[in-house]
Structures are given as C-alpha cells and as structure tokens.
Specification:
mainly alpha
Length: about 290
Amino acid sequence: MRPGPSPYLVLAAAVLCVSFGSIFVRAAQAPALAVAFYRTAFASLLLLPWAARHAAGSWPALGARRWWVVLGAGLALALHFATWIASLSLTSVAASVLLVNTTPLFSLALGRLLLRERSSGLVVLGTLLALAGTAVIVQGDSAAGPAPLKGDALALAGALTLSLYHLAGRGLRDALPLSAYVLAVWSSAALALGLLAAAFGTRMLGHPPRAWLAFLALAVIPTLGGHGLVNRALRQLPAPTVGLFMLGEPIGATFLAVVFLGEVPSATTLTGGVLVLGALVLVARSER
C-alpha cells in the first residue's frame, strides 16, 4: 500500500487554501453578511453527503443542553465570519488577517478568566508582544482615517468571537464525530447569519455571477479544503505544530493580496505583523 502524502505537505496545502479566503471575499464585492451566509451555507450543503450518516447516528443522542451549546458555537462562528469579512472592506488584507489570527491569545485569556487555566511566562511575554504589534498596526492605520481603524476593530472582534467558538466547541468535539460536529456548527452559523441578514435588510439575491463564484470558492477552498486538510494533519501531528504552520496564513494572504489586488502593506503593518507573529510563535511553543 502506497504511503499517503507527508503531513507537512498537507499542512502547506492547508495554509495555501485558507490564505485565499480574503482574496475571494474581496472578489465577491457583496455585503459581509451575504458573503458569510453563503460561505457557511454552501459549505454545509457540500459537506452533507459525507456527514449525514454520522449526524443521523449522533445528533439524536445529544441532550437539550448540548444543543444549546451547538447553537451558541454556531452563533459565535457566524459573528466571527461577519466581523472579519466586514473588516476586509475597511482595512488592508495584511492588517485584517494578522489581527484576526490573534485568536489564540483571546482563547488563552478566556481560559484564564472563565476556566481558571494558568498561563506560562512565554504566554505572558507573547501577549505583551502581540499587544505591541497590534498597537503598531493600529497606529499606522490611524493616519489613513477612521475606516481602517474600524476595520482593525472588526478584525479583532473576529478573533474574539472565533475564540468563543473554540471555547464552546471543546466539549462538543468529544460528544460528536468530527463531520457531524462540523455540520452542526456550520449549519447553525448559516442559520444565524440568515437571521442577521434579514434583521439588517441585507441584499441576499441579485448578485452578479462573479459574486456567486466567489461564494462557492469560499466554501470549497478555504472552508472545506483548508479546514479539512488541517483536520487531516491533526491526525498525524501535534496541535502546536499545526498551529505554528498555520501562522503562514497572514504571510500567504499578504503575498496573494500583492499579486492579485496590488495591495502592498505599509511599513507599520509589516513591523506590527512581525511582532504579532512572534507573539503567536511563543504561544504555540508554550503549548508543547
């Protein structure tokens, strides 16, 4: 039997897939809630044939309390996509992706506040570095007016809500098969985004063909492809190693933004990005 591809090659492909996410969001040129809804809805529909059997066998066994947790995790994921996608229309791809990737720091902070989990000295140092890097990015964006600052705030909100999603999903991952868990939270996120879009009067139909292709590409490449490859790599590599590899997303997204959008990051964004990435490396090493 031929051996499968190297898990490091799988991780490299995952980084490339998720790095395209911001490019497809920009290509859609549609309201953030519409982009987020179709990304999660299309991904759920495409996942359904593979997840239906596991879902049918495991979902009925979940109690009411756990279903509320599923809905909470879906809402947190919905808010993550909505805020991060909205940030991309206000600030640069580099700043948005760097700031949304501070999720591990928010997760550690929430674990300390809510679960009384202790943090190592490396985590404290990493947090300080990340704060410094964020300040540098924000200071650079402040010169461009209020819109980039709002975009930076939305990207940080995306990091916070993604950490809430991770926190809510801790117990669910053990209670459900992976595909059934992913289908539950993605479809819950799509439901929440549909309700939010209706509440805010977001235009959901009448988009040009380019937008629909971008919606589908978001569902297939960074969502199913990228996250699917990450889950495959996690079967062979420890989570901190996978986390270190995934720090390549801001670098990949910034490079793709230069190539496809002609968007060159400013010196302050690059400087802040080095500090933020250094902080995340320290945090990933502390988890070993």
